[in-house]
Amino acid sequence: MFDGWSSGSMHYVAVYGVFETDGNLRLQLLAVSPLDDGSQNADAHIKLFDGQAFIVGDNCSTNQSIATKIGVPLVGCASHRATTVDAVEKLIPTGVSHRKLVVLLEHVKKSQSVTKKLQCDGIDLADGRLLFDSVVAEHPCMRGHLMASAKIVHSPVFESAVVKVINGGVLSSAESTAVKRFEVPSGSGKRKTRAEDYATQILRAGPSKRAKQDGVATYSSLLKQLPPTSNACERLFSQCKLVLTPQRTSMLPANFELVMFLRANRSMWDVTTLASVGCESEL
User: Fold this and answer.
1) Would you call 25 exposed, middle or buried from its count of C-beta atoms within 10 A (0-12, 13-18, 19+)?
2) Is there a contact between 255 and 22 (Cβ–Cβ < 8 Å)?
3) pLDDT single digits (tens) 53-100
4) pLDDT in the model for residue 210
5) What is the CA radius of gyration of the chain?
6) CA distance linking residue 222 with residue 25, whole number of Å
7) For 26-37, b where at least 16 C-beta lie within 10 A, e where not — what string?
8) Closest-CA residue to 234 (of 2, 46, 41)
9) SS3 of 22, please?
10) Residue 209 Cα distances to 25, 171, 204, 205, 264, angstroms
């Protein structure tokens, strides 16, 4: 998961590691690194990544180019999709129109509740798809932005596959290929295969879903917990603004990254850790 933030002439990129431990999703800040060459194109960002199975970020063209060049699926930020409206300035009402729209406030509150829910912890891609489908059903004009195959979606097949895995659906061949890297051994390798008669072979080869359950692939639990948004980066940048105040503009990027790294990962260290580091430095 990554996103960018600019302060003055310096552009920082926050990179989070997304993984699971004991069935629980973990987000760990890895870096808040400045782009040294000043460029913010896809090639400059690719240098920060290595060995990832997927990336979570904005749906902008730069991020889509990054995902395409390194050959991994991009999970676009669902929060940004919900606010993607063309020519938004033309939709801002005048004072007279505003008073007429007050009666429609309850409808606006529904959309706002969806936007807030997408930012909550524990929301997965299936939850996001359910929320979007409900909004489209009530407001068809949003279909172009929120449907599963919208142009803004970089990896629609991958996202569709993840939703089906979470909901227990049957994957198509293209969807199975998209999540192939997340397959794990089913653990049934020691089971002896019994000889099947002719009738059983016909049933197993047929379209019956029940007859094919033994061959269903098993996927990593991380796949079911992929975050649908990159809001963790947005929250981090809000903290960055509190740290990098005008009085601290001369702070070196390395020192700033150290402060933010320790603050974001404070669950991984305590006073004892600092004491042990201090003792090692004195030796």
Assistant:
1) middle
2) no
3) 889 988 888 889 888 988 889 988 776 666 655 555 566 666 667 677
4) 45
5) 24
6) 7
7) eeebebbbbbee
8) 2
9) coil
10) 31, 12, 9, 10, 46
